[in-house]
Amino acid sequence: MDFRRLWLADAVSQIGTRMTFLAAPLLATLYLHASTFEVALVRTFESLAYLLFGLLAGAWVDRVRCRPVLIATDLGRAVLMLTVPAAALFGVLALWQLYVVMFAVGLLTVFFDVAHQSYLPRLLPPAKLVDANAKLAANASVAALTGAGAGGWFVQLLTAPFVFVVDALSMVWSALWVRSISHREPPVPRVPDRHLGREIAEGVRFVARHPLLRPMALNTATVVLCQAAGMGVSIVFLVRDIGLSAGVIGLLGVIGLVGALLAAAVTGRLVARFGQVRVLLVGAACLGPGFLVQGFTTPGWGLVWWVVSGFVASFCIVATNVVMATIRQTVCPSALLGRVTATMELTMWGVIPLGSLLGGVLGTVLGTRATLLWSGVVACLGVLWLVAAPAARRAEIVGAAG
Length: 402
Fold this sequence. Notes:
By secondary structure, the protein is mainly α. Helix content is 78%, strand content 0%.
């Protein structure tokens, strides 16, 4: 019952987040008339907090109960989201405000995400983690499907600033459902002579020395850097190079992201049959080519390339994320989980601002299509980190003691 409440909280807030994910760069492109580089900076500011505060969040979450953190960060993000349509209503919305709001929302999201992933193993026994992670991944998949289409439609109906109201309401929904969870975490024991820097270093060392977490982190950093570079210019590419409207862009996302929903449904069965590591290797090997083919997109029937890219990449992202999250929750001692989660998340979210910035530079110098092709080619190399790891040749994952 408690997991169902967590799942319901996540389901709606994910849809709101996906709508804003589309609406924010559209707001910069269509409403604020930003340049290619300025649009890429929206993604940079949205994810910059992970790079600056991700490790700190992990150490702090290991010191506190997760449920109050989830509620507080949800409500805080809702308030921040509402400042965008409020400014637009009075005709004073500027690009700098969008940057500030996206950074502040991203900062709260850092603490929310670390607490959310650390909370699940406190709520459920290890045997149920694969299934629970798959269900939460299904939320993200459904949100990507409905949020992309609904986001494009709402942008056309309400204009981009007022899509932020929908996201704010979804955050309030999430906070109310999390508050209704009856399970209460025990207080975290106070350890004498605690030192924040030393605690952060413990989490980093655990990842750096682990034979499977380390190559997983390096693979993630490589792929996400390239993905962020491509996504930093993708809206500009579709609007200005291909000539699509916001509604059509949303529809393309809905069609392409069917792969994510399929992956959420079948990953548990794939893991049961082939093992976690084999599913991880195959998914990582197919992810790079999935990104690459979006650079072949042209008007008309050439939009099929974008749909194929969305399907393949989304399937692989969900499948590998479910496996990576479960491996991390299985091999990590509970006392270190927040810090290890933050370290692993840093290799994903922490490189996004760098990738977005890189995409903005490459998009300005080389053009948007060349940037998409470059990011796809380099993403294909990310799987080599896993292939070279001896632990990737084992199908069994040994859990942590304690």
